[in-house]
Amino acid sequence: MGGGESPARVGLPHRVQAIVATGNARFDRLDAVRAVAIVWMVVFHIGFDLHHFDLLEPGPTGDPLRRMQRVCIVSLFLLCAGIGQAVALEHRQSWSRFWHRWAQIAGCALLVSAGSAWMFPRSWIHFGVLHGIAVMLVASRLAAPLRAWLWPLGAVTILLPRVVQLPFFDHAALDWIGLVTHKPRTQDYVPVLPWLGIMLWGLASGQWLLQHRPALLTAPLPEALRLLAALGRRSLSVYMLHQPLLIGAIMGGRALQWW
Fold it and tell me: Structural domain boundaries of the chain?
């Protein structure tokens, strides 16, 4: 085939081909959706931190609203990550560039573990959202050629932990897989199963959109929403900084007897 375009890429709409050709793999609309997840997460953590420092009355144990919010926030992050992988692959992202970004995420995951071990030594984060994303990004990139098969594969990974729960996977070295009989004691837990299914569905959605409805990703944002896109492009930085800043502000306010 001597250096020609792959059949899949030849079939891409002209707008997407132009973006790939110019090297611009950022879609403002996708970044804006990612920013919504970031803002929602920050608001969610404000409530968590106020509860932790006894500045707000805690809700009932196992509060279904908080639990549902967490599921929605994590799902939105993973859907965006999956769509982002589809965009990156159409952009012909090399493995070396992939590993460069992956190393940033994995390094931040280690920092989260270290920081949580200092604040919550009995329930530190050993496999939270960034740990999960690091593993799932590799899995989704390898699975990307399956294309239409990503939908049923995603469904299987979502449903599997509901029917397979074995004490063998309760060990701390294996609970990241997700086939546990009970949730480990930790401040954040995003195992590969079932959450990989959400990222695979995001990947499949991104592939379908790029092929059939590219305008939903590539159309420009209204001026009023451009700030959201800018925030979404810095989602990892916001993720890493927001909790230290929030906790520092609360502790500083206490030290100054503001509350």
Answer: 7-255
